[in-house]
Design a protein that fits this description.
The complex is a heterodimer of chains A (about 350) and B (about 525).
Chain A lengths: L13 H39 L9 H5 L2 E9 L2 E6 H10 L8 E9 L2 H32 L4 H15 L2 H15 L6 H26 L2 H9 L4 H30 L2 H4 L28 H10 L5 H35 L3
Antiparallel strand pairs in A: 1-2, 1-3
Helix pairs in contact in A: 1-12, 4-7, 4-9, 5-7, 6-7, 7-9, 8-9, 9-12, 11-12
Chain B lengths: L20 E2 L2 E2 H31 L1 H15 L2 H35 L4 H7 L1 H12 L2 H36 L3 H6 L7 H4 L1 H5 L1 H20 L10 H16 L1 H10 L10 H7 L4 E2 L7 E2 L2 H32 L2 H15 L3 H20 L18 H25 L3 H9 L4 H12 L1 H16 L3 H6 L23 H8 L8 H31 L5
Antiparallel strand pairs in B: 1-2, 3-4
Helix pairs in contact in B: 1-23, 2-23, 3-5, 3-6, 3-11, 3-12, 10-11, 10-12, 14-17, 14-20, 15-17, 16-17, 17-20, 18-19, 20-23, 22-23
The chains are: A mainly alpha (about 350), B mainly alpha (about 525).
């Protein structure tokens, strides 16, 4: 023993070593999870960025981000291996009539880009969030500001809790049964919006409730004491302070909406569609058209076409773009929330 | 909450303002009602989900009963007695070829014999296997005859039903002449089934020959090249004797069979819940049994939880009790970030990377002691389960961390004051105090995993069969299909209103009820076992 130690120095006993080991085990579990998450993320990023980025200017593969998916054709021409997208190949055949006889290999969706999918996903997310936010915030206002505790409110809260646990594929079946068949909307944006909105409703309600609860009671009491009505109080003295919190927490809901595939499989998503969503004859057709969506496209390209070096590009590229979009949304929500936590302190 | 001024009795103020009323409601009342209505949406949605799942699904039981009834009336059930007999014989043949494979590998690998040499050594065995396989040929010929007859009868009946439906539709729109032109030939089952039943004596004769051939064959088995496989050959002999001993029972069942026997009403339900086959679009008979799908879902979820629970709970304890503030601020957002991973991307990762990686890992010789290793299926329960674990970890972590957070500080302080170490405090005070919360977190994680679709659809291998549990833990590297996966895969291809379509809705209903039950139990545990903080 070192003579310099004092009387109350912790002794390195067996129990202490044991403690150290157990804590190290817990720490290992934590970092193992982070490591796995990072591994998946880096794998997608590393392989996907090869499709999306290029070595020379403008460094971004603009065609991949702005064109529609096409079939990829592989063939040998004058001793060289050539690969072309559908349109390019047709132009090539027109220029060289002999090319029509060349044996080709083709892979669907493996050329071109994913622009319609990006557009479809953005439209689905925006629409469903508008619906979910207006329903969810109103519901939260009622639960926090108006409702007195009673059997009805407990029933509503139970319903919200249970709704949060319903599997996403069941929402898909429900949306299919109700919107697509019963309402006769067919596979459409509108059906997808409502299905997704109902799915994130519990998330939005819970997030809004938290934010409303965080506004101090004194704000409401002061306003009411000055003669304002209930609604005036809520509109002028509660919502403005709660709204930033509501919006940031709901962003996490957005990430969930954007990431789900199962609910839109039978309600809103098409495997392939030539027209872009705004190319409609009449404005009302806009709501009743199906769209391509990124998550569904990933499902299609990863399960319906073979895995090889040619198809891998579009598979990883799509997964990369999708992951980055969702990750950006999630990061945004986490950063915003942390900022907000520091800003508002009552 | 403060009572709103409007609720107070109206005193006589000097200045009075008339409130605008519409249908007896003031503006404030209307606003309140509007918000209340929005809150009610959650209840409405839940009710609508239940309603629409029932609306589309409930017809399944009627149609399935009809399906099962037709199975009996058209004589398919009768023929299936013989089919089962033939299938069992095929299984015995497979046992023989497995035995040959073992001998072959021992000869070539251990004794290093050449290929030609090995084949010569195995020639007597091959002759035996061929004789064994050929012994069932008369039976198979009979079976294929009967199959044709029964299928023809079934088709005839289905066509008649279609015609009836056509006439009904024509009558409904008032096209009487066309309706009368639709020719309907009533199917007389008794007459049509006559040739089928008349086959019984032929079958009995064939069966006797078959039994004799098998008995003779089995008495003079081939000499095995290796002595250590003798026990397997003995097992084979025993199986075959049992098989032959079962013949009279089959004949009795066939003789007693009657197409007029009514199918019980509950049969539509039991054949769904306890059905061991999910077989669709088959030429013979479709079966809608949920058992293989349920077993698949449960196995995948159990693997996921087995991996996720220690990691998630360990991480929650670490972050909440042990980690420094800076570490907490780093780890928590990271895990939240993992929860934002889209499941379809994880599924793609499973197909592109993880499946192959796990298979390569399983083929390493130093891991051969693990049950089920090496395996050849890239996509199986293990692959899907590991990815689902990554989905379950953030859910369980967040909820478990909340539960740990809710333990009052005083508990910890009291424990320290009594001289307990940090480890003792964590494991004996904090964790038991929050155990109800942790358990409900695990249950909610289970709900999340069972309901997950894309990962299992892409990575579970999609083979619709109950995996072979006799191989123990090795069952975990078999491919399965799941309830969520089957809905996602088949919903796009079915005809609206068909039995198959309705069966998928019933599977959805089962999932829905399962998730409600899991939620209910989780909430119950939290409520019941919450420690009182006083």
């Amino acid at each position: 023993m070192n003579p310099a130690t004092h009387l109350f120095q912790a002794k390195v006993s067996g129990a202490r070593r044991h403690e150290k080991w157990v804590f190290a085990l817990f720490r290992f579990a934590t970092y193992f999870v982070l490591f796995c998450g990072l591994g998946v993320f880096l794998n997608i990023v590393a392989k996907g960025s090869r499709t999306v980025f290029k070595a020379e200017a403008p460094f971004v593969n603009i065609a991949f981000l702005t064109q529609a998916p096409e079939s990829l054709y592989l063939f040998e021409w004058e001793g060289q291996k050539r690969e072309m997208g559908d349109r390019e190949f047709r132009a090539f055949k027109a220029a060289h009539p002999a090319a029509a006889q060349v044996p080709t290999e083709s892979y669907v969706y493996s050329a071109g880009g994913i622009f319609p999918c990006i557009v479809g996903t953005v439209l689905l997310v925006l629409g469903s969030m508008v619906i979910a936010l207006s329903l969810g915030v109103s519901a939260a206002i009622f639960l926090i500001e108006y409702a007195d505790d009673g059997p009805f409110i407990r029933f509503v809260r139970l319903a919200i809790l249970n709704l949060a646990g319903v599997p996403s594929i069941v929402f898909g079946l429900f949306g299919f049964g109700m919107f697509v068949i019963f309402f006769g909307w067919n596979v459409s944006l509108l059906a997808g919006w409502f299905t997704l909105a109902f799915m994130v409703l519990p998330v939005v309600i819970t997030a809004s409730e938290e934010s409303l609860k965080a506004v101090p009671k004194g704000f409401r009491e002061g306003s009411l004491a000055l003669g304002a009505t209930k609604w005036q109080t809520i509109r002028k003295n509660v919502l403005p302070y709660a709204l930033p919190g509501i919006l940031t927490s709901s962003v996490l809901g957005i990430a969930r909406v954007a990431g789900e595939t199962a609910p839109i499989m039978f309600t809103a998503a098409y495997v392939v569609r030539d027209k872009l969503p705004w190319e409609v004859d009449h404005w009302s057709d806009f709501f009743f058209q199906g769209v391509m969506a990124l998550p569904y496209h990933i499902y299609v390209v990863s399960s319906k076409i073979p895995q090889n070096e040619y198809t891998e590009r579009v598979q990883y590229g799509t997964a990369f773009v999708f992951l980055i979009i969702v990750a950006l949304i999630a990061t945004l929500s986490i950063v915003l929330r942390n900022n907000l936590r520091d800003r508002y302190k009552w | 909450m403060i009572e709103s001024p409007s609720a107070l009795p109206n005193p006589n103020f000097a200045v009075q303002k008339r409130r605008l009323r519409f249908l007896g409601l003031t503006i404030d009342d209307t606003i309140r009602a509007f918000f209340g209505g929005n809150a009610f949406v959650a209840v409405v949605v839940l009710a609508l989900i239940t309603f629409f799942l029932f609306r589309e699904g409930i017809g399944f039981f009627v149609q399935n009963r009809f399906n099962v009834e037709l199975y009996r009336q058209a004589g398919l059930e009768y023929v299936d007695h013989i089919r089962r007999q033939a299938d069992d014989h095929a299984a015995l043949s497979r046992y023989l070829s497995d035995l040959r494979l073992r001998q072959f590998s021992i000869l070539t690998e251990r004794e290093k014999r050449s290929l030609a040499d090995t084949n010569t050594a195995l020639a007597p065995f091959d002759t035996f296997a061929e004789q064994f396989s050929a012994s069932a040929d008369p039976l198979r010929a009979l079976l294929s005859d009967l199959t044709e007859q029964a299928t023809a009868l079934k088709t005839k009946f289905v066509v008649t039903e279609d015609r009836k439906e056509e006439r009904r539709q024509l009558l409904a729109v008032g096209k009487l002449a066309e309706a009368a032109a639709v020719e309907i030939v009533a199917v007389d089952f008794a007459r049509e089934l006559q040739p089928l039943i008349a086959m019984l004596p032929t079958y009995q004769t064939a069966n006797r020959d078959f039994a004799r051939t098998l008995a003779e064959l089995i008495e003079r088995p081939p000499a095995l090249v290796q002595v250590e496989l003798a026990s397997r050959l003995a097992t084979f002999q025993r199986f075959t004797r049992d098989y032959v001993a079962g013949f009279p029972a089959i004949e009795r069942a066939m003789a007693a069979w009657d197409y007029r026997q009514p199918v019980p009403v509950w049969h539509a339900l039991t054949s769904f819940i306890f059905g061991r086959q999910w077989l669709t679009a088959s030429f013979w008979q479709d079966w809608y049994g949920i058992l293989p799908l349920l077993v698949g879902s449960l196995l995948v979820s159990l693997v996921a939880l087995f991996l996720a629970v220690p990691l998630a709970v360990g991480a929650a304890i670490y972050v909440n009790q042990i980690a420094s503030l800076r570490e907490q601020r780093f780890i928590k957002p990271c895990i939240e970030f993992i929860s934002a991973f889209p499941s379809v991307v994880l599924g793609f990762f499973g197909i592109a990377v993880l499946g192959q990686a796990l298979r390569t890992l399983s083929q390493q010789s130093w891991l051969a002691w693990l049950p089920g290793f090496p395996f050849s299926e890239r996509l199986n329960i293990l692959t899907a389960g590991s990815l689902l674990a990554l989905i379950a970890v953030p859910t369980i972590f967040t909820l478990a961390e909340d539960a740990l957070n809710n333990v009052p500080r005083a508990f910890k302080e009291a424990s320290f004051a009594l001289g307990a170490s940090r480890l003792q405090t964590v494991l004996k005070i904090i964790v038991p105090a929050s155990l109800s919360g942790i358990i409900s977190a695990v249950l909610l994680g289970l709900g999340r995993v069972i309901g997950e679709t894309m990962v299992v659809l892409l990575c579970a291998g999609n083979r619709i069969a109950i995996p072979d549990f006799t191989q123990g833990v090795a069952v975990l590297v078999e491919p399965v299909h799941t309830m969520t996966g089957i809905i996602a895969q088949e919903m796009g291809e079915v005809v609206r209103g068909s039995v198959h379509y309705r069966a998928l809705f019933v599977v959805g209903l089962v999932l829905f009820l399962l998730s409600l039950a899991i939620n209910y139990v989780a909430q119950g545990i939290v409520r019941r076992y919450r420690i009182s903080i006083g």
